[in-house]
Amino acid sequence: MYSILRSLLFRMDPETAHSFSLSALHYVPDFLFKKNLAKPVKALGLNFPNVVGLAAGLDKNGEHLDALAKLGFSFIELGTVTPRPQSGNPKPRLFRLPDAQAIINRMGFNNQGVDALVENVKKARYKGILGINIGKNKDTPLDQAAGDYMHCLRKVYEHASYVTINISSPNTPDLRQLQQKEYFAGLLSQIQEEQIRLSDKSQRHVPLVVKISPDEDPETLKQMTEVILNYGIEGIIATNTTCSRPGVTHLPNAMETGGLSGKPLLELSTQCLRLLKQYVGDEVTLIGVGGIDGCVSAQAKLDAGASLIQVYTGLIYKGPGLVHELVQGL
């Protein structure tokens, strides 16, 4: 059924299809989705019903939380959200590569701002594990970025099960510099201090997770993990999209500016995950994302060291049944 629907959706502009699909999902009866039976997983100090979560980016503003919950995810990650609303990069900014089951996006953290997201979360009925992915506004200088992240952390803290620090999108100018030595330790130090303050105030601990790029060299990854371990960051999401174009350069739209996600990212992101596992062992929870389109690719993430996995582009190409397939197959 989804293959028929997909052919119709793929005739639409990608952003239009995205909005239409999420809006339509609200009206699909719950009983049409298969119920999952799975082994729970304990990670980040939380009890996850299964290993399969939704990656950030699909629902940036938390407008579709209850609709997405129907699909059987163990956890849902919203965002990326910034302190102030921003429109993102000019359109067109989302491109399909169907022959590679891939997408290129240069969205640029388009969102309605953290206050709008919080209001949407408060209205939702969803009671499952909720990640909220936070970033900085495009016009905030790098040396003031920590202020943006701390502002968002304060706003979302009481509503999130965990908070993801996104410093790896390729679509906000210079954002990935925050992964470099001269910024990274200072950024995490300030965010961790704010986390401790909020934890003491609320008497509730919300874990911090860092989402990283697949395009960093092993030495940079090693330096990052040393900082992550030093500041007690509890999770790493590996990985964000890539600026490289593995195996797709011959395809239409392949050379559009932006981050590549989907099947071509699998090997690169899994290699990164494997390296991170070597560096952090069992001290940090690893969440694998990038190129998952079925049980074989999902198992590759788990074998490389992930405790949890997330999907996004695979969902676009395979449809909602992918979640059930993964949960049952794994």
Automatic annotation (TrEMBL):
It is found in: Cell membrane; Membrane. It comes from the Bacteria. Its cofactor is FMN. GO terms for molecular function: dihydroorotate dehydrogenase (quinone) activity. CDD domains: DHOD_2_like. It is an enzyme of class 1 (oxidoreductase). It is a peripheral membrane protein. Substrate binds at residues 60, 105-109, 166, 171, 240-241. The keyword NAD does not apply. One of its GO terms (cellular component) is cytoplasm. PANTHER family: DIHYDROOROTATE DEHYDROGENASE (QUINONE), MITOCHONDRIAL (PTHR48109:SF4), DIHYDROOROTATE DEHYDROGENASE (QUINONE), MITOCHONDRIAL-RELATED (PTHR48109). Catalyzes the conversion of dihydroorotate to orotate with quinone as electron acceptor. NCBIfam families: PRK05286.1-1, PRK05286.1-2, PRK05286.1-4, PRK05286.2-5, pyrD_sub2. HAMAP family: DHO_dh_type2. Monomer. Belongs to the dihydroorotate dehydrogenase family. Type 2 subfamily. This is Dihydroorotate dehydrogenase (quinone). It comes from Fluoribacter dumoffii.
